[in-house]
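If you are new to this repository, start here. Below is one unmodified record pulled from the training split, so you can see the exact layout before writing a loader.
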Amino acid sequence: MTQHKILYCWFKKGSTTARKYIEEGIINGFLAAGHEVETWDGVHIQSLEKILNDFQPDVFLGHVRNQPGYNPALWITNACFGVLQRYKNTHGLKVALETHPDSITMFNLLDISMSIVEKNKPFHYQARPGLPAEEKLVNTKFVDLILHAFTDKVNNYGFRWWVERVPVMSWPLAADSTVYVESQDDVEQDIDISFVGGWWPSKGLQLDKYMKPMMEEFGDRLHIYGTGWPYGSRGYLPDNEVGHIFASSKINICLHELPFVQHHPTHVSERIFKVGMVGGFAISDNNPCILEYFDISREVIISHSPEDMIESCNYYLKYESERKEIANNFRERVKTDHTYIHRVNSLLERLF
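And here is the target side for that same chain:
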């Protein structure tokens, strides 16, 4: 295996959002696969020049757009770009950049209710692709590969502008196998049902739909962890305890924001891969993208309504042997196909 040197540009250094865990998982994936990694904040040119001079990376992994507002990343629009471009021209640097979909086009073509889009303005009303900074990436032949965390079925309606100009690769989320090392076999499963995740208004549209009936049905047997909840949460769960909760829960609930539980597969959250990594049992809402990665009924259980989820929970709490068999199948699938080691290997294979 060829060892590579990766310069990773943070999406938003210091972020405490879900993106933090994704980025840490990617970096850990490179390290676990035997590569070297240096990180850069995407802002300071002096630190960039020092990394290029001392570390001499052969891969630059960054982002086209950053929050807030999903505007072009600063490094593209300031002097840092010139430094990176000169280094690429002299050292043969390979460049892979993650970006977001053309959401309005995607949702219109998929006939996803615009009332749902209205609830998600910060993400879904971003500017259309083809901004001057993006044109510059293409015209200078700086970017070798565009990445996105959606299924490749989204390419031609969510990333069409890029597909017509640059190679595009689906690069889904995954499990960090260096962090989620605990197994359901190592702990007592003393929690009947759990959900781990924060609440915010747009996400609450789906969380409330499922969690409120679940709370009425199961009461204290349902443990909710996360920040921002206006009801029911046991509070913030430290990073080093999340895997333990997944492993010690008989049932882990996985829910997605409303745009991702429509008729067409688009995107699946990182949570479901984490649950599988520790051998947890998962019941998810009806996100069709799960079918892209898992064998439903054999590895993951899908619920089509809150009533269906309650019925499934009652059934699998009763039939432990079935639950454990499905959880074991789930873990084997994640370990075989869906860790960040798999993701970084697939990226490097495409670049080289």
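Two things worth knowing about this chain: The CA atoms of residues 131 and 308 lie 44 Å apart. The longest strand covers residues 191-196.
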